[in-house]
Amino acid sequence: MEKLRIHWNSSVEWKPSAVVALATSADGLRVAAAREDGSVEIWLVSPGSVGWHCQLTVQGVPSSRVSSLVWCCSSLKSEGAGRLLSSNIDGTISEWDLYSLNQKVILDSIGVSIWQISAEPSVDFMHPDVTDSKLVANGHTSHDAPSDCESCLNDGDDEYDELDHPTTKTDGQRLVLACDDGCIRMYKISDKDGFIYSRSFPRVSGRILSVTWSHDAKFVFSGSSDGLIRCWDAASFHEKYRITAGLGGLGSGPELCIWSLLFLRSGTLVSGDSTGSVQFWDGNYGTLMQAHAYHKGDVNALATIPSQNRVFSAGSDGQVILYKLTEEMSISEEKGICQEKLFKWIYVGYIRAHTHDVRALAMTVPISREDISPEEKIVKVRRQEKPVEFSYHKWAHLGVPMLISGGDDAKLIAYSAREFTQFSPHDICPAPQRPLIKLVNDTVSDGDSMMLVQQSSGWIDVLQVKLIGKKVVTQLLARVKSKGSSKIICSAISSSGMLFAYSDQKKPCLFELKKAEVGKSKWIINKIQLPKRLPYAHSIIFSADSSYLMLAGHDRKIYVVDIKGLELVDTFVPQRKLDSMNLQPDEPPMTRMCTSADGQWLAAINCFGDIYIFNLEINRQHWFISRMNDASITAADFPPKNSNVFVVTTSSNEVFIFDLEAKQLGEWSKQNTNHLPRRFQEFPGEIIGLSFLPSSLSVIIYSSRAMCLIDFGMPIVQEEKVQIGLDPSSDKNERNKTNWAKRKRKSHEQKSSNTKNFDFFVFKDPALFVGHLSDNSLLLMGKQWLDVARNFDAPIHRHIFGT
Amino acid sequence: MITGGQRFVASPPAFSQDGKKLLVCTGCTVSIYSVSTGMQITELEGGHTDRVTSVVVVPVGAPSSKFMSYCWTSSLDGTICYWDFASAELIKKVKIQFPVHSMVIPSLSTIGSTEEGSNLYAFLSVEDINKPASEKKALHGQVRIYNLKNQKPVGGLLTETRNPEILYASKNGEFLGISNKRKLHIWRIPANNFRFDEIKKIKLHHTKKLTCLAFHSTLRMVAGGDDTGRILIWYNFGREKFAQNLQNLKGTKNPSDEAKPGVRNNDDVDSCTTWHWHPSEVKFLHFSSDGAYLYSGGNEGVIVVWQIDTGKKKFKPRLGSPLLYFTESPDPSLSCVSCSDNHIHLLKMPTMDISKSISGIKPPFSFPLKHEGSCTQVAFEQTTGLVAVSTEDYCVQFYSLFDNHEVSEVQVCKRNFQPADDVMLYVALVAISLDGSLMATIDVTIPEEKLGGLVCLKYWTRGSLVAEYLLSTVIYEPHSDAQVSSLAFRPGHNMAVTSSYGGDFKVWVHGSHAGRNNESMQRTGWRCQSVGSYKGKPLTAAVFSADGSILAIAAETMITLWDPDSNILVAMIGDTLSPITKLSFVGKSEYLVSYTHSLKPQLSVWSTSNLALYWSHGIVTEAVSCSHDESQFAVLALLSSPGDADAKGNGVIFFFHVEDPVPVATWTVTKAKGGSLAFLPANPSLHESSATNGVNQLLLVFMNGKHEYTIFNPHKEENIISKNSRKSQAAQDEAERLGYTSIYGDLSNSNAKHNHFQEVPFAPSERPWETIFSGSSHALPPLTKLCTSFFESLLEKRLENSNEMIIDADL
Q1: CB-defined contacts A:B, below 8 A
Q2: A contact test, residue of B230, B244, B248, B273 with most A CBs within 10 A
Q3: Is residue A655 within 8 Å of A648, Cβ to Cβ?
């Protein structure tokens, strides 16, 4: 095969927004991350650094900023995840419906900002078999997943007393809201009645910034902006005691903000405040036990592991700090035998993986359904060169608590909670909120390629891509902003490049791009009126000959619109069972669609990884493919040459080829899917796309960190060890990425010779899109993370010694 | 023979048990200083023949033995001595055979010294001299146990290390540790019924080289510092390995199934915390006696006080020099820190104010390479027996050679010193006039990327006190940007000369003619009187003759003679093979000594009367000193050629009579590289023999490259200079302060002083009461305040007199 020339281009704009809140779902499988622009992402938790996948993105209202997230257990639907609620700065409470992918306001504004929301810890005795539907996390302070028995096994001393559980509230789970006016309001949530106001606690001075429940739900603790922590009786609504949090009783003026509170089963209350100190209090009496002042900025979030003998704090200085409960051992044992044991919280260490403020922490205990055997202990052998073969499962045992942090630098970082200091953290989101890019070749405009860029912040760009010599030049042809700057959910461009469409949260829009006959601007955009009744869509696509527009509507139906006639041609209802005549759509929403080049097939994929194949010639659903190994689909496409073949990649880093006509796995897949090289299974980063070579059976699979070529015509060589040399010129700024990046780095200028199957090529900077311009030239859109980070607000000033 | 200038900070000092004395290892002896006065009380000598490496003070066991003052010392000569340091008597000497680098006696702290029956075990870090030094990888360091009672070794080796390491013991003596490369070794020593096979050991791992460690006083906690400045704190070390009985272990929850955060290699600790503040190597760690704080220090000269519970830091900055050791005294309000500039600062504890400093001679520092040739660090003030040493922190330290203590320090450049790797500013030349009334310094600022370079010539005049100098004139760039090669005062005149490599020399005079009565500083400065040059050649050395009539300037290989007043070239003398480094007139004779440094070293004596070479030797000369009256001079010669990189620095002092190329006497010395020589007049008050001889004998002082010096009489073989002079300096130990006085100090005993006041003749030069009490009454401070200041002015005068009286009486 001839050499492939890679053209690097960084002309796209990319402005990710900060992560403001995190919460772990009840079953510990998902983490919800709210961003500053109002969107919420659902991340699939993976036990290692492989397999993290952004399962869903729900675009919310950009004007209402989320202040905290909480998952409530839902008693009716025994689904593990529960209901995701968010409190917003504008005083509303929203529910994020993960089934219809929208934000519902369930509590209209109470007039004041809500800083935090905390759900009552509860155990559903009514359904003792449903162990997973216990309490869950709350916004900033995000407790770990419930301390169920499985996780207790790992941590020696778990004296979780069953008697301490609160009595079951049949009328729903209680929630407390920390309000800006100094009031804590209590609401009840239940599936029957919805969200009901219960009553307010007495109003106090200052703003209530943080709120948490004691583990037996008898008390509510609140932290306010005047430096006071109050303990309230949750039944009588009386104040039990109050704590002045300023160190030494001093400095508790209006300037001391208690940003975060955490209650441990041992009865210890932990507080994090704006002076950077993390303090441990006796929860019974409110006396100070210990104070640590390691943060150089505000302490924004606290978290603990299931056994609750470790506490993590994160602050605006970008540090995540571990504190551990340690027994104080006297130096001479003879005297100390009969003494009572003294325990102290000691500072252990910090990790500074974020370049900017850390806003939120969440603890998860991923329990994967995949049966990955726990990694055997590898004896470290010190040698000159570190082995290139690198295990991503190093701290990835099942049931191992993992800490996730998110902050102003838009990244999400995962840490091993158990071996916090031993292993470097993993950046699970190397390209947060990347602009979605679609590339079409051989367009009508002089045969150049055209590119459609969908920005997360509400507009789409149409760019012309020209290859001038060896350089790729992009030229902006058109920019369309959505109405009222509402969020764009999906977009598509036709293969001729002359039509493009998008859908925001209200309705889909179709545009035509025309060459101008007169006038200054070369191009004219015409809006084409779509049929009225079309709902807004989660996915949108043009057929290969640009005659049809297909939309996956939020009502879970798929609409086919004839562009010439501008009429609705057909409506599909995706179904699990092909012969059932149930026309009521009850399948999860489709988030991804592909169509084959010959126009026969339409593949629609829902967020859980189920695939629905429709035959467009007979306008019927052809096949239902259940999720592969319970993994989500990360990328899928039809090869341009062979329309009968459908290629998907999954979040567990597998590749499947389907033979659509025969309704079965393809030959290659049958032989090789179980024998994929280990390197591929440990694909660095989440796979975000496929790009087929226009004229051969090869595909390039890429994540934002690396790409890999798979030639389906070539055999897989097992255990091939391709040494990818260390790049000595790798600049220092990239060092703080995870280890593999250092080990497998190649300059992206280098021309890779595609001689081997599964040959990896690692990007120096995060890639946003990879697409073929022709058989031997590849367009790589990316951006240096430093350039992206420049747009963020500056982190707090850090003094460096000697400057 | 007087020796002095030893390093006080080569080994950690130790406090006596009452906290009133500090035992400092000074070379082969241990000097005992009073904590209250900072002066030397006595010296333990005669026991060791090599450097003393550690002092262990025997703690007080019972109240009855409160006045016991015993200590153990170890030395590189392979002996351990037992002293009564109150009377400075050697009691016992134990031979070890190996050079002892560090010694701890853990059992001392538990049993006390009163239990005569029990054995004393010393843990020694020794150097295995049987292994050849050429074997770089051989394990030269060993940790051995020695029974001091029966003077026999116990058991085998505890461990072997590449180099001998410092031993650290916990306060109660239960644990012992060393840092060995990237590991800490910790042993648990059974407190009672010591048996060798009961010693258990654990290792703690780190990824960097560990430099020091400290044990917590009450908790199972050990701190280690590494060479990147990190401090690691291990909690509950040895929970499994050091457990005393298995039942106890089983009673606790098994900690092994819990992850140990921060711990490497599954070490036997619960967790490990890392702190990082120091930018470079941590030199010492020390837990406070109550266990709440950790002190750390390193190269940057700041003591960091860590509050262990919260991790908060407090700092004691501006100690001005890299720190080496921190020692706490039994008195909780006192501790001391040893700095690498040969100072030991006594700190008042909670505030860490420096109450007293025990200051040794400051060590030499290295000049930037390309400037090395034109720098001298040492100048002698010959009348008072002081040496002026230019120091790294831009000062000139005046050090009394006879008394072996610092007299004063003159800050040459007003700049805070920051211990750093690259020197940006240094004092290059120091010259003191013959009578000691004038001093001149040259300080050089090295340009940073060719910007900001400056040479600065400063003239100083002596103040009222000994070695107190006041700045009189600053001359920026005396020779534009050229380096100044030498600086010399004209004996008997207020005149000085500077010569430069730029090819000119300048004669400077003190502008006293411009109205001496007018005391404004502008009028009485130094100014350039004349400028001269010789064929544009770089001028490498300049000197005045003893009577001040001739100025000799070396223009590379030529010596030119000038009339300093009229600035007329009088004569030229001959040619040397390479540029002359230093010139010197031999006393009042007509001869001139010069030496050259470069590849062809030469020592030459020139006759100014017939303008010719008199005689010469091809020896590598490091320093030359001429007596001012007689025609004798001494030469310090190196035994290796200047290009020889790994020269050991041994040298020879030749004592020449100018007429005779055969030396009158020779002495071999060590560490001669960078050394210097000077003739000193024997101070009659200190030196009795010269007074009896009636001849004012000259003494010769040799200061080696490490600023250790020896004063001896070049004319006589034996040692005739006794050390009794120093005893006179020993300040009277203050009486123990109790109760009220310990807090508020002495009440002024007006009666006693009044009596003295009557006796002492007192002539006030000024009458303070006239000025104090003058002024309008509403502007005056209250009478009580005025009175105290008035009386103080009187008392000060009297106090000086009384001190003199005491000294006289002692003599």
Answers
A1: 86
A2: B273
A3: yes
pLDDT of residue A603: 92
pLDDT of residue A170: 52
Among A residues 259-298, those touching chain B with beta carbons less than 8 Å apart: 277, 290-294
pLDDT the model gives residue B763: 38
Average pLDDT, chain B: 79
DSSP labels, A285-344? T--EEEEE---SS-EEEEEE-TT-SEEEEEETTS-EEEEEEEEE-BS-HHHHSSSPPEEE
Location of structure tokens 């001269």: B532
The partner residues of A349 in beta bridges, in order of sequence, read A322
A444-459: pLDDT as tens digits: 766 677 777 877 777 8
Tell me the C-alpha distance between B125 and B158, whole Å.
10
Please list every residue in chain A whose beta carbon sits closer than 8 Å to the beta carbon of residue B216: 331
Tokens 């640590």, residue? A292
| Contacts with B262 from chain A: Cβ below 8 Å | 348-349, 421
Q: Which residue has the tokens 């097939």?
A: A601
Chain A residue with the nearest C-alpha to that of B239: A329
- Predicted confidence (pLDDT) per residue in B642-660, tens digit: 555 555 678 888 888 888 8
d(CA A767, CA A10): 9
Structure tokens at A269: 């209350």
Mutate to test the interface with B, among A310, A331, A333, A350 (most CBs of B within 10 A): A331
Q: What is the CA radius of gyration of chain A?
A: 27
SS (H, E, C) A218-240: CEEEEEECCCEEEEEECCCCCEE
Pick B794 or B613 by higher pLDDT: B613
Nearest CA to A460 out of A476, A440, A444, A445 is that of: A476
**A234-238, A577-581, B177-181: which has the minimum mean pLDDT?**
A577-581
SS3 A73: coil
Q: Residue A331: which of B219, B248, B272 has the nearest Cβ?
A: B219
Of all helices (H) and strands (E), which one includes residue B751?
helix B750-759
Nearest CA in chain A to B217: A331
CA atoms A224, A229, A232, A234: torsion sign: positive
**ipTM, interface predicted TM-score of the complex:** 0.75
Residue whose entry in the numeric block shows the structure tokens 């370079």: B453
Supply A34's token pair: 């709210």
B311, B275 contact by CB (below 8 A)? yes
Here the tokens at position B82 are: 């037992």
| Measured CA angle at B31 (ends B26, B33), to 5 deg | 130
The answer to whether A476 contacts chain B (CB < 8 Å) is: no
Residue A802 contacts B, CB cutoff 8 Å: yes
Confirm or reject contact between A332 and chain B (CB < 8 A).
yes
- Residues in chain B, how many? 811
Could you give the CA distance from residue A702 to residue A683 in angstroms, rounded to a whole number? 9
What's the rounded Cα separation, in Å, for the pair A10 and A766?
10
Confidence of residue B24 (pLDDT cuts 50, 70, 90): very high
- Cβ contacts (< 8 Å) between B271 and chain A: which residues? 324, 326, 346, 348
CB-nearest partner of B239 from A290, A293, A329: A329
Cβ-based contacts of A158 with chain B (< 8 Å): none
Chosen for mutation from B189, B215, B242, B260 (greatest number of chain A CBs closer than 10 Å) is B260
- A 10 A CB-CB count for B464 gives 6
Give the sign of the dihedral formed by CA B654, CA B657, CA B662, CA B665: negative
Distance CA B524, CA B412 (A): 20
Contacts of A348 in chain B (CB under 8 A): 261-262, 271-273
Which site among B216, B220, B287 would you substitute to test the A interface, given the most A Cβ atoms closer than 10 Å to its Cβ? Answer: B220
The pLDDT value recorded for residue B110 is 59
